[in-house]
Amino acid sequence: MRAQKPGSINDSRQRPAAPAAPRPPARRRRGPRRWHTALAGLVAAVMLAACGGAGTWGAGSSDQIVVAIVTNSQMEDAISLSGEFEADNPDISLRFVSLSENEARAKITASVATDGGEFDVVMISNYETPMWAENGWLVNLQPYADQTEGYDPQDFIPTVRESLSYDGDLYSVPFYGESSFLIYRKDLFKQAGLKMPDEPTWEQVEGFAAELDDPSKGLSGICLRGLAGWGEVLAPLDTVINTFGGRWFDEEWNAQLDSEESAAAIEFYVDTVRNYGTPGAAQASFAECATQYTQGNAAMWYDATSAVGTVESEADSTVVGKNGYVQAPTQETEDSGWLYSWSLGIPKTSQNADAAWKFLSWMTDKDYMKLVGEEIGWEAVPPGSRLSTYEIPQYAKAAQAFAEPTLTAMKAADQEDPTVDPVPYVGIQFVRIPEFQDLGTRVAQQISAAIAGQISTEEAIAQSQLYAEAVGSTYQEGN
Length: 479
What we know:
Number of strands: 10
CATH superfamily of the largest domain: Periplasmic binding protein-like II
Largest sheet: 5 strands, mixed
Number of helices: 18
CATH topology of the largest domain: D-Maltodextrin-Binding Protein, domain 2
CATH architecture of the largest domain: 3-Layer(aba) Sandwich
Radius of gyration: 22 Å
Distance between the termini: 52 Å
Number of domains: 2
Strand content: 5-15%
CATH class of the largest domain: Alpha Beta
Strand order of the largest sheet: 2-1-3-10-6
Order of helices and strands: HEHEHEHHHEEEEHHHHHEHEEHHHHHH
């Protein structure tokens, strides 16, 4: 397994949040006031937690770049290769703060939203980027990208580039991009006499999971996320809701989580995880599912297309070469894969924006893809960001089984129109409004509790509906 360089922060500074102000509902534009209201509780909680953390922040030197990064295999690779950057840029030193996904979302958001100034580079996504750009929290990276020789921002996969832009300019650049698809064990399917369709339905997937689930052999039918978090269990669940005909809100911002379609999707997901998922499914994150699947403990895994870097890694996986990849399962929609990008941005508070761009562009450049392939392995190259990556002969060979499903899923993902019926928001596996960080977390806690058997699915849906109603009412005319 790759070595991890953990980081920690300790910052007890707390700034008061601005009072809320009513705004008319809009599809995309959300100003700073909504963010201040939505984040007030989050900031307070994060700052209190930080007081007990290990380590302190020193003043640092002007050429030290502090990079807040999410802990997963691709990011760990970047840390391990960062010495190459420092060797070429001796006037710049790097300091990484490596955080789990849920922790990173909370601490980065709290820092940027309160002008904390702890970080020069932050790992964010297509959820935060357009809203934070509108709020003036991020440096416009388009001039940097256009003026950096050979960087070629037009090489980014179009759906990813557009999702990280505001008013036509890039405000973060993709380290990797992903949609979602279904990974399955071809050898187990063959042994059981089963054939996976290229475009399976969720009912078919449930049937396969029931057929292959064998606890006596330590084999689960499928691994699905169950860990609480809007970027954990809700990521796959939201795609199920969408394709079952459900949605978070209707066009008038009436909450729809207890609608017939949404409720059916949630019940289906919870039942599938409980019946055929891995042990301790309520704690299953992306990382946990990666471990379970790569160690041969699950017959299928529905998750991010970026998972292939781990699944096909000789160093990390026992199932290399045994896997098939098909499109995200559907029900009522033609496609259901999500669209997501772990990207890098520069907070407006950074005092080292030029140096930060040098590192940020190094980590997202075409040459970095080749560096990873040559130094770590072609299966470990960050996928789904640049079209040119798929033209590298060595990568094309290593990615033969999964390159086409990945690109197909990413090109088909439509975050403007993800559902059967119209919605007033943008997003596939999230709702791009500031309140979703808190709303999604609360709903995810209910779903995870249902998976754990602590409450019934009906109770989880009813409470989730109340949370969504409270948020939806603030967007309705007259509120």
